[in-house]
Zinc protease
Amino acid sequence: MRRASTIAVAAGLVLAACSGDDTTDDTTADVSDPAPAESVAPDDDPDADPDDDPDAGDADPDVTAPPADGTAPPAGDDEVVALPGLLDPSDDPIPNDELVVTGQLDNGIRYYVRENDNPGAKADLRLAVRAGSADEFGPSTGLAHFAEHMLFNGTEQFPENELIDVLRSFGASFGPDVNAYTSYDETVYSLVVPNDEQTVELGLTVLDEWLTATTFDPAQVESERGVVLDEWRIRTQTSNGRLFEQAADLFLDGTPYDGRMPIGTADSISNMDADELVEFYDAWYRPDNVAIVVVGDIDTDEIEADLERIFGDAEPRSAELRERADRTFDTFDEADVRLHLDPDQRTVDVEVTLPLPAFESEGDASLRADLIDEMIFSILVQRLDRDVAEGTAPFDDVSPGTNSIVTGLDAPALYAFTDADRAADTLTSLLDEYQRTAEFGFTQDELDTARDNVAAFFRTRFDGRDSTQDVVYADQYVEHFLRGTPYPSIDDEFAIVSDELDGITTDALAARFDARWANAAPQVIISAPESVADALPTESEVLEIVAATGSRPVDQRDTLRDLPDEPMAQPEPVEPLSIQSLIDGGYSFFDPIELIYPNGVRVRLNPNQIVTGQIYMQASSPGGSSLLTDDDVVDALYAADIVTTSGVAEFNQAELSQILTGTDVEVGAFVSPYTENFLGSSATADAETMFQLLHLYMTAPRVDQVAVNQLIASEGPVVADPGIDPGAAENDALVDTRYDDELRYTVLPSDEQFATLDIDGVERVWNERYGDAGDWTFVFSGDFDVDELIELSSSYLGTLPGTRATEQPIDVSPAAPTTILRTDVVAGTGDTASVSMLFTSEVDSLGPSLTAHADVVSSLVSARLTDVVREQLGDTYSPYIVTYPTTDPEPVVETYVNISGSPDRIGQIAELVVAELDDLATNGPTDGEFANAFAQIEERYNFVDNGQFLDALINDSLDPGGQPVTDYLEHFFALDGVTAASAQAYIAEHMPTTAFVQVTVTPRG
């Protein structure tokens, strides 16, 4: 099963966050001058999603040691190449960061404490339990995950839902969907709290209650069944959920993980019993099986004392710690295949995995193996990408994948998108690329490219070390407890990785690949729509193709043509007409300046060090698809995706990727009804490359038929049958109903409209919307030297073609609905449904007060729906609501509500949502509800991020009278003007239950 992969190396040194803050630029900063500001609330990974959460095994795999001379012979038909295939078998220890205070209480609790001031004024608290679904005993499944839910439903000190109110009262986001996850091997709980002494102590007390005093009230267990069932529907009743089951069956069969998916089964969930939950809890939630992690703006000595005082008397509730099952993997000696035919599958996907038992070591040998593996598969994908770009591949796109769904399994893959008629050829192509690598190895140029790309990742991490967030450190220490992965300082990490990369040769790549190719029989998954089943190869035909690998002749690849080191030369700079400050009395994080050039381009620069070593970019121009003819609108819907995947100038996408080797740069684009836009980021050291791409996309855009074909292959199936994608079908119905089928807003055009998409139309749209820079504004916020960015702006943006003409968008938005407009959609296969509502109310103007009210009301209504629909009725897993002021193109307030549930209950859930909105509008919130919502937003306003700065500066440029940049600063102060009565009035005015759009999605039969 494909899981997106960029850099997944370093033996756990670089870790995916399992739960933590999710912000626009992945980091926030505490501010105090002149006013507090906002950060996005934590958005932790869902707790029982085995497709997202890292899974672990902690036993050493049974692998063959390398030969005494450290060499590995090339793989042949009858040869066995020793694992792990490392030419350098040394295993030097990796030192842990000395700034982390570690220890163990007398009762066995391990702890990790670190002081860190990013974002500041916070503490990230974790309770890590070395027990997951693979540790369940007895016939029921999903016990570990259900137990995790129950920890939020009552402890001795905080009965029932009292704990939620306590945490909300000081601004913490709280609930099983944002504060915990359960995987096959572990369960981890997280609280991010303000760093004052009283609140941190309360947070630690909550962790202690979770460990020692969960009540498992039978009535609460019964009511939680519906919530977990809805989560089960969300996780499993989709094409991706069913595909994961296929992957789990293929890779986990016969292991302790077999049949123990964390979410469990519908039958087990429906019959979950309090006694078996208590038995699981008592067996694994023990002092000698957990760790406490505290990272943040704290005093480490005080925290150590608190840990001893609060957790020191914790005692086990079972006689002894159970022995965990052996989780080591054998080698996959025989090729195997799964054909996953699904009614909701969009494309035909061919995946070839080469799995091994995960190689573990005491020191840097695992790091070396992971770095080499990352380089190997990046080279393989780059080769195949070149075939795609040149139009010679039997597939439309290729990416790296992984089926390493538990830590003991090392299962990288090649993942290609194709169609049924080419599935066999695609499989052959992927297998032959593996065989070609075994026969011819790797070139020095390929090695250099792969090494530079991996080095760029670690360089960015190193350059940003001074702004490393609490969540990153906390994740590392959890990983160390669970899996023994080292947590070096970032300085040590960079030095170690740099040395390792310098020592990797083409022979080292070949030796590691040959060991994998000799010991990992290909495991194939072909997933496809049910409708094309007859055109696919059968399982026996797939196995025949695999068996014939090696007998098919393969040729050595041609070398790439010579390419320049950078996309373009720097133009002669143009002096700006003016440079001026945008606000009076700016403060350390937000004191932007504006440059205006003779071509009309405006550049706004906001230097800060919220994220060291990184720059964030946003650019916009008024106009959008509103200024296009109807015949060009479909081309506009997809033009940005096509152009930004076609390369630039004379370089196709594969060649552009080669030129960009070693850089950390992203530039994307999108066209809305009223604007055309860029979004991007770069490492500070790679800022010029970002400017070069912006310049070339506007002066030398490229539209390749390959990119058009990729877009058609990806989007065509859901355009033809929206019912295969419930989310897309819901969004399409929502906007089509709201905007009376105005094509410029649509998510999915009709089949006939989609068929008009072509190269000429994309080129025409792009040149019209992006060819004249005269009314564009480019905003840069982040860690940069102002003089350097002025020089880059003067060279690459001041020289863009521009007429200085400012376009005015045309209003194509129908008036807001004055009645209830309901639409029913049938989409998806499975036992799950959802309802969405969109409220739109026109306002005279936007402003700080409206923004502050919207933020408080979003929190307030979300809590009400969570408490009533989820906690009281047990009907849904995670209600979602957001209300916000915007322009469309005139000022409006929009409110979006989405809630899932069982198909037979979704109508009643929709009625309940309306009833609760009516109650809030008529009677207002309770004192406690308002106080908790206000506290959440007040706490959020203490933090800033670069994404907010970009939005504020772009909005001011597009709508200076309606959204002046000063509003961004003033909305923090406007929070004081929000009261329970004014929040009630906001709900009554902007969420009228007599006028809204409602879309209900129920599954196909």
